[in-house]
């Protein structure tokens, strides 16, 4: 495996989106505080804290599980690593490792990239957690505030934009890292990447906007829907008997996080065939969205053209998202060109496991 300048630039872009996303959310939170919107201030910060604490917990656990020589942390004591994570800065240690090793691999022709790809895979998973615990809920909150309370700040639009950038980066990067970890053909840069990205962005956008409309009808309806979907997603994760963490309690936490991801998008967790689960998921997804739209217009039939535009956007994005999903898996998926290789969200590695496999690869082979 080799690290190209493009891959390295993609990683640097991920660092920038992470810093921009967190910074913009904290900024908008204090803007709400200055204007006396204390509940919005608290909610914005709660989403940030839940996400950052979660990724620090997993990051610290993985540092303890991994051999010391796998990163630059060999120079730090376990106590120092713990303190850094307590200050919510643990993810930057991983980014430092990536930047140092990535620079050597690209510009100094270093061939020792196995550890580098493993660190990148871990970062990809951590960023996926952050995306659906923080960026996606922030989208819902900020769009709700704009539509329902007519509170418009320039920084809100920055927050919405950075959330979309984070979702786009995290979803595509996770798939690329997963295929690379399994030593499978990666998603080709170009049309396949674009179509896969559009599938995720369109379906997540329709989900976000439909939840916003439901919240405008009644916030308790939203809490009930999210709780039910999360509960079924978490139960499904338990039934898959995942073995992602060495700690039993951390494994339970991981399954709960998977339940959150499943509120917004499909996420296979066990390397099994996904055709039936994915079909069931998106059938229920469409039915839920249709019910929300019907309920919204029955309860609030005399709303402005803004809500008509939102409704049309939901309908169009869900249709386009599903079309992109079908096109990608029928014509653009890498397995169409590589016989007897499993889907990257399905799949087990064909052949023997390499000695220094990534965490994702080891997990999928359980």
Q: How would you describe this structure in keywords?
A:
disordered C terminus; mainly alpha; single chain; 366 residues
Descriptive notes:
By secondary structure, the chain is mainly alpha-helical. Helices cover 75% and strands 0% of the residues. It has helices spanning 5-34, 38-65, 78-86, 90-107, 114-149, 154-181, 191-217, 219-239, 248-264, 275-299, 305-332, 359-364. The two termini are 24 Å apart. Mean pLDDT is 80; it is low at 336-356 and 362-366.
**Strand percent estimate:** under 5%
Shape: globular
Largest sheet: none
Uncertain runs: 336-356, 362-366
Number of H/I helices: 12
Q: How far is the N terminus from the C terminus?
A: 24 Å
What's a concise summary of this model?
The chain has 366 residues and is mainly α. The protein has helices at residues 5-34, 38-65, 78-86, 90-107, 114-149, 154-181, 191-217, 219-239, 248-264, 275-299, 305-332, 359-364.
List the helices and strands and how they pair.
Blueprint: H1 5-34, H2 38-65, H3 78-86, H4 90-107, H5 114-149, H6 154-181, H7 191-217, H8 219-239, H9 248-264, H10 275-299, H11 305-332, H12 359-364
């Amino acid at each position: 495996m080799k690290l190209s300048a493009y891959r390295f630039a993609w990683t640097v872009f991920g660092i920038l989106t992470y810093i921009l996303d967190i910074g913009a959310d904290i900024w908008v939170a204090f803007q709400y505080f200055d204007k006396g919107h204390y509940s919005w201030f608290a909610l914005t910060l709660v989403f940030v804290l839940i996400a950052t604490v979660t990724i620090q917990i997993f990051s610290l656990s993985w540092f303890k599980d991994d051999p010391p020589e796998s990163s630059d942390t060999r120079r730090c004591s376990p106590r120092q690593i713990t303190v850094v994570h307590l200050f919510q800065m643990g993810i930057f240690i991983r980014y430092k490792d990536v930047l140092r090793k990535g620079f050597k691999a690209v510009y100094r022709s270093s061939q020792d990239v196995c550890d580098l790809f493993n660190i990148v895979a871990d970062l990809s998973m951590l960023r996926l957690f952050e995306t659906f615990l923080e960026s996606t809920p922030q989208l819902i909150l900020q769009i709700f505030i704009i539509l329902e309370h007519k509170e418009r700040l320039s920084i809100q639009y920055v927050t919405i934009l950075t959330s979309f950038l984070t979702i786009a980066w995290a979803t595509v990067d996770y798939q690329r890292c997963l295929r690379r970890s399994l030593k499978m053909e990666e998603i080709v840069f170009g049309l396949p990447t674009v179509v896969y990205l559009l599938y995720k962005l369109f379906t997540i956008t329709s989900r976000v906007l439909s939840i916003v409309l439901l919240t405008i009808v009644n916030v308790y309806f939203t809490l009930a829907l999210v709780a039910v979907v999360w509960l079924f997603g978490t139960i499904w994760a338990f039934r898959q008997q995942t073995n992602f963490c060495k700690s039993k309690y951390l494994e339970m936490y991981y399954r709960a996080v998977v339940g959150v991801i499943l509120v917004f998008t499909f996420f296979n967790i066990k390397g099994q065939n996904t055709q039936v689960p994915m079909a069931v998921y998106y059938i229920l997804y469409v039915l839920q969205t249709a019910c929300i739209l019907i309920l919204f217009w029955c309860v609030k039939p005399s709303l402005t053209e803004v809500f008509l535009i939102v409704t049309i956007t939901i309908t169009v994005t869900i249709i386009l998202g599903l079309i992109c999903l079908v096109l990608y898996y029928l014509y653009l998926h890498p397995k169409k060109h590589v016989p007897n290789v499993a889907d990257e969200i399905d799949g087990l590695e064909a052949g023997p496991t390499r000695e220094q496999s990534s965490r994702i690869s080891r997990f999928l082979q359980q």
